[in-house]
Every structure is written in C-alpha cells, then in structure tokens.
Amino acid sequence: MTAAADQSNFPTMIIPRGTEIRVNQHGQLSIKTPGNLVIQNSGLYSELESTNGSIRIEENVTVEAVSIRAAQACFIQGTVTAWKVRARRIALEDRAKAFIMLQESESLELSKTARLVGNFANEKELFLMMGKFTAQLKELPGSVDMSSPTPLAEGTRSGPHSISAPPRDEGAEHLRTAQMLLEREVSRTDLAPAETEALREVLYALRERNLPRIANVYRDAFSEVKTPSDALREAQDHLDRYFRR
C-alpha cells in the first residue's frame, strides 16, 4: 500500500488561523475558533467557543463542558452536559439530550424526541430555585449517579441482579477512560465489520452511561475481537474494576 493510499483512509484535520487550543490543569481541552466548530469526538472539555460562527455536536457524540459559546447557533444532535451554553440560537435535534444548568439564547428549539434538563436563565434564578427546595436536596443520597437510568426509588432495592457501583469519582474515571479507549478502537481499519459493531454497542452504552447494558454486553463484545490491542485490554480492565468482577 502506498503512502498516499494509506493517508486516504484518514480524514484531514485543518486548524484555521486564529484558533486557540489549550489544556487546563485538569486535562480538559479548550477550543476557541473564529469559524464554525463541529464536534465529532466524545470528550471532556473546559470551553468550546465559536467567536463568529456556530457549534454543532454531532449524533452519537457525548460532550461534557464547563462552557459552550457560539456567536450564531449551537446545534445539538448527541448528548451535552454543560454548566453554561450561550448562543443566539440553541437547537436540540431528534433524540438529542442536553443537561444544561444555565443557558442564554434568543431562540430555543426542541424537537419532539429531544430532552432538555436544567435550562436556568442565570445564576440568581438557579440560586432561588435551589433555595426553595433545600429540604428536598438534603434528602437526596450522597452518591446519586445522574447518568444512571435507574430511578432513585429502585436504587435502594437489593437483588441478585443489582450492580454495585464504586465511589463516584473513581468509578466515573474508569468509565471515562474506557470510553476514550473505545473511541480510538472503533476507528481501527483492521477490524472486521462485526468486530467494529460489537465495540460500538459497548461504546454507545458508555456514552449514555447505561450501566446495566454495559455490564451485560462488554465481555461478550470484547471477545468478538480476534486481535485485541493493548488499548482494548486496558478498556476491559477499567470496566472490570468498575463492576468489581
């Protein structure tokens, strides 16, 4: 295979003039660009900003960010968790999920299948709302996993099929690392379609933090890969440690 043919298998990355890319002390990436910004890779970000254009979070992409700012519009197709989103227009497309504490926009659009949680206008509004429900907040358990699909009432039940999660910080790190490693694995060109699809099933469950689904499928999915890489073994180790099996 020639070098030109080999390069054709990978997309070209262009960093426009005026773009600023930084990493903070917590390892979170900040991207500030003058034009449009399209996020196709899940990850943890500090700030995402388009000073003159729009930002798009594509389908099946999970983004956690402190701040998202766009001069024009913020289009969400995947899942976004952010402290603050500011744009002239915020649009949640089909099956999009957004967990936003504070949002500033002139126009907010939600499709019928989208889900928006939070959506306070400013810090004062958030403070006043939390103040009204202080008693209820104190009653919440200290280790609630907000990404788990299991209702709080079910979290107190015990049974042979219940999943015991490790402490929040350590457990979340295992899941994030496993997801990051799988994001790379699914792009391997040497995998058969069935192998890639098996890994994608685990990856999608990780993006949604669907813990029961992850626990049920990840071992079988990883066993489908005939030539597991070191990264895949590391991902399985993180999931094994998370579920303590």
How would you characterize the overall build of this protein?
- This protein is an alpha/beta fold and 245 residues long.
- It folds into 2 domains: 13-122, no CATH class; 165-243, no CATH class.
- Helices cover 35% and strands 29% of the residues.
- It is built from 8 helices and 10 strands.
- It has helices spanning 3-7, 123-132, 134-139, 152-155, 168-185, 193-208, 211-223, 230-243, and strands at residues 20-23, 29-33, 37-39, 43-50, 55-57, 62-76, 79-92, 97-104, 107-110, 115-120.
- Strands 1, 2, 3, 4, 5, 6, 7, 8, 9 and 10 form a 10-stranded mixed β-sheet that branches.
- Strand 1 (20-23) and strand 2 form a beta hairpin.
- Helix 6 packs antiparallel against helix 7 (211-223).
- The longest helix has 18 residues, at 168-185.
- The radius of gyration is 20 Å and the shape is globular.
- The relative contact order is 0.08.
- The model is unreliable at 142-168 (pLDDT under 50).
